[in-house]
C-alpha cells in the first residue's frame, strides 16, 4: 500500500460490531452512515470533515463479531476470521492511513477483540501509525454516575490487556440517542445534561483526537502501512496462535498450532492435535 502523501488526513475507525463506530462519525460530522444493520452497508465507507483548516477523511469499516467463547478453538477461529477479513479490507485501500482509531464500548472487551486489535496494529500497520482508543460510553445513564469515567476506572485493565499501544484514550457518549420513549419523558434538566455530554464528546473528538492525527500524522506521513516485520514482542497466546493460522496451508501448520496449544495453553498432546485439526479445518472454510 502506498504512503499517505495527500493533504487530507485519513483516519481509519475500527472496532467490534455494534460499538457505535458509524454513530460516532455521524454525530461528529452530521452525516448519515448506516447504523445498526451491518448487512446493509458495504465493507467500508468514508466521510469528510475539516477542523482548523485541515481536511480529514474518516473511514468507517464494518466491525467484527467476536463473542467471548470458552473454547480455545472457537476463540482462535473467530479471531482469525475477523483479523483476516479486516486485513483484506485494509489491504485493498490504495492509499495510506494517518491514524487508526479503535472504538470499544463501555462493556467488557473480549479476548478476541483485544487480539484482533493487536494483530491489525502490529501485523498490518507494523505499529507505524498512531493508534487512539475511543471508549463509546453507549450505556451512559444520567441516573447512574458510575457509568462516567470508564477509562479511569479501567485504566489498569486496559494497560494489562492492550499494553502501552495507545497514544491517546478518550471517552465519548451520545446520550441523546437513548430510546425515544425515555427521551419524551426527559425533563429539561436531563435534556440539557444530555446535550452537554454529547457536545463534550464532539469537542473531545475535534480538539484531542484530530490534534493527535495532525501531530503524529505529519511525522508519519511517509510510513503508513509497512510490510517490514515487527520486532518480536511478547503477545497473548491467542495472538500467537492466530499468527500461526495464517500459515494454515502449510504442511507444518497442524504441528505448529498443536505445539503452541500445548505450550501456551497447556493442553495435552492428543487433545491439542485434535483441536489444531479442527482449527485448520474451520479456518480453511472461510478461505
Ligand atoms: N444511546 C446510545 N446508543 C448508541 C451510541 N452509539 C451507538 N449506539 C447505538 O448502538 C447501535 C450500533 O451502533 P452503530 O454505530 O451501528 O455501531 P457500529 O460500530 O458502526 O457497528 P458495525 O457497523 O456493525 O460495525 C445503534 O443502535 C446505535 O444507535 C451512543 O453513544 N448512545
Ligand atoms: Mg457501522
Automatic annotation (TrEMBL):
Pfam families: MMR_HSR1. Residues 11-136 form the G domain. InterPro entries: GTP-bd (IPR006073), P-loop_NTPase (IPR027417). It comes from the Eukaryota. One of its GO terms (molecular function) is GTP binding. This is Predicted protein. It comes from Naegleria gruberi. The lineage of its organism: Eukaryota, Discoba, Heterolobosea, Tetramitia, Eutetramitia.
Amino acid at each position: 500500500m502506498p504512503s499517505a502523501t495527500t493533504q487530507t488526513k485519513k483516519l481509519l475507525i475500527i472496532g467490534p460490531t455494534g460499538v457505535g463506530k458509524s454513530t460516532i462519525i455521524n454525530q461528529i460530522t452530521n452525516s448519515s452512515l448506516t447504523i445498526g444493520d451491518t448487512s446493509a452497508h458495504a465493507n467500508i465507507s468514508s466521510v469528510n470533515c475539516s477542523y482548523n483548516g485541515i481536511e480529514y477523511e474518516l473511514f468507517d469499516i464494518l466491525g467484527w463479531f467476536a463473542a467471548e467463547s470458552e473454547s480455545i478453538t472457537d476463540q482462535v477461529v473467530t479471531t482469525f476470521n475477523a483479523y483476516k477479513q479486516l486485513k483484506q479490507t485494509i489491504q485493498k485501500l490504495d492509499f495510506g492511513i494517518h491514524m487508526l482509531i479503535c472504538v470499544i464500548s463501555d462493556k467488557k472487551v473480549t479476548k478476541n477483540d483485544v487480539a484482533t486489535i493487536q494483530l491489525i496494529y502490529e501485523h498490518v500497520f507494523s505499529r507505524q501509525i498512531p493508534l487512539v482508543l475511543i471508549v463509546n460510553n453507549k450505556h451512559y445513564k444520567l441516573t447512574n454516575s458510575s457509568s462516567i469515567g470508564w477509562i479511569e476506572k479501567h485504566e489498569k485493565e486496559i494497560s494489562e490487556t492492550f499494553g502501552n499501544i495507545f497514544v491517546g484514550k478518550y471517552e465519548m457518549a451520545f446520550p441523546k440517542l437513548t430510546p425515544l420513549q425515555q427521551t419524551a419523558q426527559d425533563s429539561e434538566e436531563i435534556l440539557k445534561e444530555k446535550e452537554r455530554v454529547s457536545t463534550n464528546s464532539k469537542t473531545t473528538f475535534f480538539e484531542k483526537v484530530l490534534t493527535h492525527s495532525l501531530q503524529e500524522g505529519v511525522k508519519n506521513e511517509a510510513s503508513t502501512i509497512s510490510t517490514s516485520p515487527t520486532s518480536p514482542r511478547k503477545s497473548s497466546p491467542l495472538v500467537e496462535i492466530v499468527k500461526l493460522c495464517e500459515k494454515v496451508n502449510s504442511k507444518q501448520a497442524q504441528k505448529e498450532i498443536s505445539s503452541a496449544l500445548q505450550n501456551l495453553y497447556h493442553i495435552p498432546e492428543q487433545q491439542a492435535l485434535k483441536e489444531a485439526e479442527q482449527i485448520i479445518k474451520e479456518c480453511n472454510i472461510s478461505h
